From TrEMBL:
Residues 201-299 form the HTH araC/xylS-type domain. This is HTH araC/xylS-type domain-containing protein. Pfam families: HTH_18 (PF12833). Keywords: Transcription, Transcription regulation. Transmembrane segments: none annotated. The lineage of its organism: Bacteria, Pseudomonadati, Campylobacterota, Epsilonproteobacteria, Campylobacterales. GO terms for molecular function: DNA-binding transcription factor activity; sequence-specific DNA binding. The keyword Transcription applies. InterPro entries: Homeodomain-like_sf, HTH_AraC, PchR_regulatory_protein.
Length: 304
């Protein structure tokens, strides 16, 4: 059975105390996290661990917002979030939005494990990934990015010159990854017939009317007589939003209305809208409206 760690606890000291390095030790495992703030929009994380047992890290919120590019250097792990499940192996690259997924990462007993991550701000993510459309992507690490990562691994970047070196390599990686995604996005644009457009609008209406308990993508595709690929790509191409984003938006608009016009408290509204954890609801509400639910209730007279 895997040893469980709350991800918020793992990173809390580093964020609150603004530390560059933090460590976690427990019997058969040791985890060391290094952080480098390269600008107000970019942070780099280097996570090294020695595991003699499986470790499960659970996250229900993030102190950072934006997008993370993760690179599996050594070890084996799995990633689960909602109905998404991925297996990560060496030379895997995953891209994850930090404000949308409650997730569990399991790192398997493989001795030495190393993961590198780049966190970028929401405005920078939107600038480059406006039309990419997914909350999570998994690819093999491409050759150019692997070369840059190998150079980082084999260089001491803890001094002033190291900071300059690291910043250059990280921005090389970002340019390389974003260029690849944009090329793929442009390739993925498809022709939408009048039937397709009508079906996509019908699918959007279904999601809006059933946002509390929306159908899964496969069921929705059958309901409007489209294949899943055309439904996913068509949603982003026609509405500039994924199905998930439309459901999330409707939930938050309804939550705002309930907070403003009903006697329900935050816990009741969170349950009513299908959230298992109130903290996830609070995080999502804040990301949508830039105000906490409890503050919205206090000041709701100003929003009427």
């Amino acid at each position: 059975m895997a040893y469980k760690i709350n991800g918020n606890d793992l990173y809390s000291d580093m964020i609150v105390k603004d530390l560059d390095t933090t460590s976690f030790c427990h019997k058969n495992l040791q985890i060391t996290i290094k952080r480098k703030r390269l600008s107000d929009k970019v942070e780099f994380y280097d996570i090294a661990s020695h595991l003699d047992e499986d470790v499960e890290i659970y996250n229900d919120s993030y102190s950072s917002k934006g997008l993370m590019l993760g690179f599996m250097i050594n070890g084996q792990s799995s990633f689960k979030a909602q109905n998404i499940s991925l297996d990560l192996s060496p030379n895997s690259t995953y891209i994850q939005t930090l404000d949308s997924l409650i997730n569990t990462k399991t790192f398997y007993k493989t001795g030495t494990t190393r993961v590198m991550g780049i966190v970028i701000s929401p405005d920078m993510a939107n600038l480059f990934l406006k039309n990419s459309g997914e909350n999570l992507k998994l690819n093999r690490t491409n050759l150019n990015t692997k070369i840059y990562l190998d150079e980082i691994i084999n260089t001491n970047y803890d001094d002033c010159l190291g900071d300059i070196f690291l910043q250059g390599k990280i921005f090389d990686i970002l340019y390389n990854e974003f260029s690849s995604i944009q090329k793929q996005t442009n390739t993925n644009k498809i022709f939408l017939s009048n039937f397709d457009i009508a079906a996509l609008n019908k699918a959007k209406d279904i999601l809006i009317s059933s946002f509390k308990n929306p159908p899964c993508i496969s069921k929705l595709a059958k309901m409007v007589h489209l294949n899943e690929f055309k439904l996913k790509v068509g949603f982003k191409q026609l509405f500039d939003k994924t199905a998930f984003e439309i459901v999330r938006e409707q939930k938050m608009l309804h939550a705002k209305d309930l907070l403003q016009n009903s006697d329900m408290n935050i816990f009741e509204i969170s349950n009513f809208l299908g959230f298992k954890h109130q903290s996830h609801f609070t995080k999502m509400f804040y990301n949508e409206f830039n105000i906490l639910p409890k503050e919205f209730i206090k000041n709701r007279k100003f929003y009427i």
